[in-house]
Protein 1
Amino acid sequence: MAAVVAAGAEAMVVTHGPDVRYLSGFTGSSGAVALVGGRAALFTDGRYTTQARVEAEGLRVVIDRRSPAVQAVEWLVAAGVTKCAFDAGQTTVAAMEAMKKALPSSLRRSFLVATDGLVARIREVKDEDEIALMRKAAALGCRLFADVLEFVVAGATEAEVAAQLEFKARMYGAEAMSFETIVASGERSALPHGRATGAKLPRRGFVTMDFGVLLGGYCSDMTRTVHLGKGSDLEWDVYHSVLEAQQAGIAAVGPGVSCGEVDEAARAVLRKAGLEKEFSHSTGHGVGLEIHEGPRIAAKQEQVLEPGMVITIEPGAYLSSQSRSRAGKPGYGKPGSGKPGSAAAVFGVRIEDMVLVTEGGGEVLTAASPKAWMEL
Ligand code: ZN
Ligand code: ZN
């Protein structure tokens, strides 16, 4: 509540699903939590009567036909609250108008105090129970990678590889995948977000697999890039530059270190290798109840890492026809420097681990999956 008070409010209404779950345990798709002083209540509708009472045990549960946010606001007004924080980044204009309408006219202009991500910020630092769940989710991801390798063969489609990952995930107890599985093969590996398609895996070339499961409500997220057939020198070089960058990023993780410093540790390696422009995204992100949450591991981010945060470190390099034309440096993208018999060096490499920030540095939660160059 200290953060709520600091924001100039005496109470808070929370409607963003993962925040509601974090505060109450309730997993339904429509719910709101109201907080005032030491009291909290969960509001939802009749579809969730039983579920809400079971999941939000110990919390006051109110069931009503009206929107949970409106119910929450009315409950706070009845409790004598005159200022209430809400997360502007997670509230639609329509929801805000509905909450305003529910207020007595004397409070309509002053009651709602916009804040940004109060609960999300608290969620960035995981407690012991959450860390235990995230370890399990990460371990399940590693198990899937080991299992799927036998299906990573020339001629299989990306979708078939994704389907094997997803089938096994459910068989091993995952509630769902934590995001749409990425399997990007051959030239498609140059797409940082190449969703699995009907494209067939090539006889020679990279296959990037970026996937995660949802287990106990928590997400895992990892990427491995393997090579089918014998790789070229260029492919080998780029892979090892990305791996070195990823290891430098992990080595930089520790309490008190800024997210920008971690990003720079990884980015500097790729810059030195002449691949700065080919690393076209940020180094990582927080992960937890949501697949992408704070903190952002990106250039110039001043936020400082704290023990209990779980982040990803996922540098990549993507060589496309554009990067060939503007690379202008020896070795990369010159005709003939790619696969023998091919003028185009269009491919990508990404390697991603989940890292828990500890008192002493960082602990890789997905360490069970090997990262050494793999030719299948
Ligand atoms: Zn990922
Ligand atoms: Zn990620």
Protein 2
Amino acid sequence: MRLSSQSAIHLADSIERPGYARDTPGHGILHFGMGAFHRAHQAVYTDDAIAATGDIWGITGVSLRSPAVAAQLNPQDGLYTVSIRSSTGARQRLIGSLRSVLVASQATPAVVAAVASPQTHIISFTVSEKGYCRDAGGSLDLALAGVHSLYRYLRDGLALRQQAGLPGVTLLSCDNLAGNGRQLAALLTQYLEATAPALTRWFHDHCTCPATMLDRIVPASSAADLDQHATSLGLRDEAAVFTEEFTQWVIEDRFAGPRPQWEAGGAQFTRHVQAYETAKLRMLNGAHSALAYIGLARGHEFVHEAVADLPLRSLVERLMREEAATSLTAAPGQDLGRHADALLQRFANPALRHRLLQISMDGSQKIPQRWLETLAFHQRTGRACASILTALAAWIRFVRGDRWQVDDPRAAELAGLWSSGDASQVVDALFGPQGLFRNSWVASSADRATLLAFIGNPPAL
Ligand code: CS2
């Protein structure tokens, strides 16, 4: 039997349930990007906030193109379980904050109407780095921002809000971008200026784009996970997600209207989001990407295996402690050394089975904020960053595309750079003065030589 509002009474008693009645209409959150991450993070904080305050909020999910998540969640009335996997076992909980999922490409008017609805106060996003349709320099690429980009739905819905005299909304980017709120505001402004200039002023005067830092490791659920889970649950949950105990959400308190009391689930509201965010991107995500590209080349499949490979573990420690942490200003009370200790422990969790290939996706969208900004910082301090350069060389070999399937919006272009077989041409096309990533980092001649040496001959570690 499939999980749904009706069948939920058959769930095993050990499973925690929403502490509120789900059938009351409430305030609305419209969330773009219904992947496992949102279901294991923001939707859980929202569930906690509703249970703690009785203030009802409901999330309407939007998938931009793929109907897969809607087909998992709608037949289940939006219900799904989160399983927390630690080394001591698993704990499960049923989440009630999600109401339904729209597929934007098939239900455009419904998505635009949801943006414009007076019940909607927050529109949030986990559309991944590439969902923002940026060019390599970080500006909006209008050719990519087509009819099924998030910008189009925002523009059409916000225009209706303006015409109806409705209040603005909070646009909350929850993606791993440096200065995610600021970037969303700038990109949407570029889009409006190009396609609906009369709306730009209203957007600036009525909407806000707070900065956020979100952290929880959520591997994609596999078919085997779902099968095994059905046995322990007593019902089949096609939308189940599996995650770790750790969770963190740091948010800038700059909302255009009401918001859930996410503090009830442990969210921190602070002015120092940027410090947390930069530390997370350069340490956690920077380490993750290094584990992915170097770990795959060393024959590993999962993060816990790669971090148990001692020479690789030491490289990742040096990357976090000596290269990333020294480029950061900690938030008040934040201890970056302890942060690195905790990350190593989280990476070592064997129950998570987090695939390196999942992290390897979309490298061209990830490396600027994970590695290149650290390299640029230390170009000014004079510190050599051998660990990041080793990881960067592994990525350059990876995008050649001859050993793994490269899942990246620039995959063809990156593989094309390799057509001459000459690594120095590839490095110059990426990190030379005219290179693709020149706005983030241009390799000095010493770093260029190191990179070329590491590409030709991966260091033994
Ligand atoms: C990972 C992140 O796939 C990736 O690129 O580095 O999804 C990471 O697991 C999360 O940011 C953890 O909060």
Protein 3
Amino acid sequence: MIFPPVSTLHEHRAHRKAAHDDPERYWLTYAHALDWMQCPSKALDAAGLWFPDGRLNASVNCLDRHLEMRGNATALIWQGEEESHVLHLSYRQLHAQVCRMANVLRDHGIMPGDRVAIHLPGVPEGVVAMLACARIGAIHVVLFGGFSPEAIADRLADSGAGVIITADVGRRGAKRIPFKATIDAALDHGAGTAIRHVLVVAVTSETVPMTEGRDRFLSPLLSAASDLCTPEPMDANAPLFLLYTSGSTGKPKGIVHGTGGYLLWAAYTHALVFAHTPGDIFWCTADIGWITGHSYVVYGPLANGGTILLFEGMPSHPRPGRWWQVIEKHRVTSFYTSPTAIRALMTEGDTIPKRYDLFSLRVLGSVGEPISQEAWGWFHATIGGGRCPLADTWWQTETGGIMISLVPGAIEARPGAAAFPLPGVTALLLDASGRILEGEAEGMLCIAGSWPGRALGIWGNDAHFHATYLRPFPGYYFTGDGARRDRDGYFWLTGRVDDVINVSGHRIGSAEVEDALAMEPAIAECAAVGVPHALKGQAIVVFIVPNGPASDDIQARAARAVTTRLGRYAAPERVYVVTDLPRTRSGKIVRRLLRKIASGDIEGFGDLSTLANPAAVTILIEAMRREASSA
Ligand code: PRX
């Protein structure tokens, strides 16, 4: 069975109604779009588990079941950064590679439920490693290539991963990104990690130090391994992966996704939003280190038997227009990227994309941040030629897949709006006191009830999941986002309402940045806020109160404290050295004021009498004025 097409408003309404009126029946029916080793008899149980008695294997769903009909069809196209580096893997070939990798992992003692970390650049082995873990019931933990060694050490320790798969280096133009050296540094740091084996993909012929007894190159192991591997039958609610993301608290949390519900949601939403048909070539530009890479580079499109494109390089390297050239060369039909990328490419103008034949494109998608009407319009007109529907898709690591989006054909687009909740998603707006807002309104975006892709919890800390998402508005899942609903019911996302900052689509907690700053002895107090930024969406601005007289390099030290602890992606845009920070009487720093001041909005503060130290605001404004006049 395949997912039904939803290409008219009538069909869209019918699906939303069916999923709303009888979710049990709706989802049990569509669960048959997956291959089960034991079919579920129930969709959602009282404990909130999806398909509680179902058993399946995600890699079988992404590979084996396509072998008979589509064994020779291309599953994966890899375009290396170098033009001539191209690889086409058929479903049969990808299946063989996954089996080999799975056998290597088993040979290294990996058992169902064990965690395997994956830290790789844009090479096919990333996809292979994820599916290999799924095949043997291991839980993959993909770590973003931009994390610092310390950030990696934290995540390795928290997940308890026993094996890590990494690369010698990553290629970025002439530059080499030190993947293996980063892992070596992380392991030197992380006395708390349980890593026994480091398996290394040789991306180049570069020599990297190998630690005897711990590190091994993968290639000879894969060649010696069998290309058949019996898949492990997994409970639908056995974790498929952990993925670390940031929230309001300092510690990143390992979001746990299960196997059955997650896979169904990834496949269902991919089919629906991208109107998937066989023969589509699907290019999602996300790194596999993010949830978008999990759901729409790997699981969704492969579960649907699609062809995925993986590109090793960057949008404008070695020259502007590289992405458009990749689309032209590989006849990409479906293209899914981020507003940050679109904003950057937009600055290159229209002439460059117009040099390429982009007529293969049929549908476009955007994800990760609010997209401005201008960026939406440019992407739609210049890349989509005005003929491709462009879906702005709102969702989160925790939701597993797309939640609010245009469904091409069924819904008319409004530039910059994420449009409507998908069938099965009950999105609500609440006011600060938890009252449901009806009709045209702006409020806190919450989801009522469950949906198959909802995360199972936070690794090792289910109470935290409950406290973060379910306690703020009892009875609802709280997203942390604000949204507006127009009079026709379209949702427009307005950004986070908590202390999460979204820099170029990277989710960073204010508290994470502040914890990093607090480790610098020269800093007595600090606060981090997000401010609007033309290219990045938001940028991080940091306020620090020095410990004693400030040294000349205190700003540089503050910035270094953040990049060392988190990674360069979290580098503060500006660091202000101040003498005091505005606080409430109970001692909490008032970030709302800092955000306003840092955004250059220094008028109209209203009543400051609730602050313990209202003078701090005046001092801050003076400091900003001085800065502005000296700039
Ligand atoms: O604030 C929302 C923003 O990204 C957050 C989720 O980040 P993450 O878990 O890293 O997942 C990113 C990819 C799904 C959300 O809470 N966000 C994501 N998509 C959109 C968005 N904000 C506005 N519009 C979107 N389409």
Protein 4
Amino acid sequence: MRTQVAIIGAGPAGLLLGHLLLRAGIDAVVMEDRSRQHVEQRIRAGVLEQGTVDLLVASGVGERLLRQGLRHHGIDLLFDARRHHIDLSGPTGGRAITVYGQHEVVKDLIAARLAAGAPTLFQVSGVALHGFDGNKPSVTFAHGGRRHTLHCDFIAGCDGFHGVSREAIPPAALQVFERSYPFAWLGILAEAAPAAQELIYASHARGFALFSMRSPQITRLYLQCRPDEDLGQWPDARIWQELHARLETGDGWRLNEGPVLQKSVTPMRSHVVEPMQYGRLFLAGDAAHIVPPTGAKGMNLAVADVRALARALAAHYGERRDDLLAAYSVTCLRRVWRAEHFSWWMTALLHRFPGQAPFMARLQQAELEYVTASPAAAATLAENYVGLPFATFEGT
Ligand code: RFL
Ligand code: PHB
């Protein structure tokens, strides 16, 4: 088997890269270790930046997103039992976020890929990367009970944080930056109409809480919990009680309850490897970097990476230019570190840290008051939250 680009992983990064390459006339094979059903039902991110939406629409996979996505022009910050509105669009020239599940983006991309007859292999196993430090990379794997070798020009490691691609790079060639946080998020998906139009990020003495949604019928909610939290200790009634306590402010606004469709605990970490390239292997998305979900940046970073990679590969094949490929890591890391800072800042602003010193609590309070009182500070939050334009990070 032979292709131009072997793409490992069918998450948002791998699928969108495959899609953009297809549009540029570049062959790729996408291989994924889980089933199609699994990746289409995996509940994760829900907030798409303006640039992510623009790219999906411009590349022909935005039809359902435009029809079903919920466009939001603001978010609320809740503290001291009061909600404070942050306008996202005013300070950003009309940019906004769109709430549309990551798994819906994945479904749209898989549908486009299958309609085009582009090779997509689910339930592969034993994926191993070879020869990417030279000119003849290949990927070996098992699929349908047989071993295969896929020869290629480039490998795109889009296999997430627990994938094999980053691990295939000699450790001495990578610099790792990481921070873990002393808490996690307990997330639920509930069959209940969202009781508010916009997202609510709550700083509460009992811990952080987030009110979000997926559709006019489905509410998505998160609670700060311990990193080793046992879901068995969290029957639905306890989760609702805690959500009511952290999100309601005594002004009559009530959260709508409904059957809990899904429950999970997500650890919180920041993690970056540099560079995002080794020879002919390019890392993209969670394979190269993780942010805590507080800033809603993970999937959007994955999208920005593969946009840069697709453009660089198009320049390689179409114009025999390799300057964009050579600059890939540096270009992506500028946005990555901006998002790492923003996600860390939002996380530090809104969570209770175990054993938190009173000094830190006062700093959080001062920052919350500043962000909600100062138009300049609110604009900084807004421009980061809706996502800085791609061009911001493209200069040399
Ligand atoms: P993914 O989605 O993890 O996809 C990687 C794919 O690779 C497959 N794979 C392999 N395939 C073949 N061989 C192997 N050896 C393989 N090993 C793994 C996996 O099965 C998988 O299909 O990474 P990608 O594409 O880089 O996408 C990144 C995003 O998924 C992630 O950053 C976001 O979900 C993060 N995130 C959020 N991001 C946002 O932009 N906005 C949000 O609102 C947001 N909220 C969140 C989030 C992540 C969360 N969790 C569960 C971590 C909320 C949560 C709770
Ligand atoms: C979500 O809807 O899942 C969501 C929204 C905002 C975040 C993280 C997750 O910051």
